[in-house]
Amino acid sequence: MKRASVLFAALLPLFTPPAFGGAPELNVKAICKARSADAIRSGSPPDQSTADCLHDEEDAKQQLNTLWASTSVPIRNRCESDARALGTTSYLDLLTCIRMAKEINSSPKKETGKQ
User: Fold this and answer.
1) Considering the domain boundaries, does residue 32 fall inside one?
2) What is the pTM of this model?
3) Per residue, what are the HEC states of the chain?
4) What pLDDT does 21 receive?
5) Signal sequence span per UniProt (predicted)?
């Protein structure tokens, strides 16, 4: 029985959806290096240095961790899914998506003019 409990505890993180726990863990170093490489490949200078990119992503991660728990699971899942589908999963992308979704959900509904 003890072995089954240990096995369950070890495997649970592998099968736990990100929305169930905290904000997803991303490899920001790889993200920033890829952005820089993409810019060079397209013949343009990178928008920012890798160090600046890392700093911005870490700041976004801290802000995202603050918002994550108060964001509904459907919004978190949609933002993660959209970012993965576009191949742009980064803390900045997730943070922007969540902020936009919250803004849209909190804006007052316009009347349609029907009576």
Assistant:
1) no
2) 0.68
3) CHHHHHHHHHHHHHHCCHHHCCCCCCCHHHHHHHHHHHHHHCCCCCCCCHHHHHHHHHHHHHHHHHHHCCCCHHHHHHHHHHHHHHCCCCHHHHHHHHHHHHHHHHCCCCCCCCC
4) 65
5) 1-21
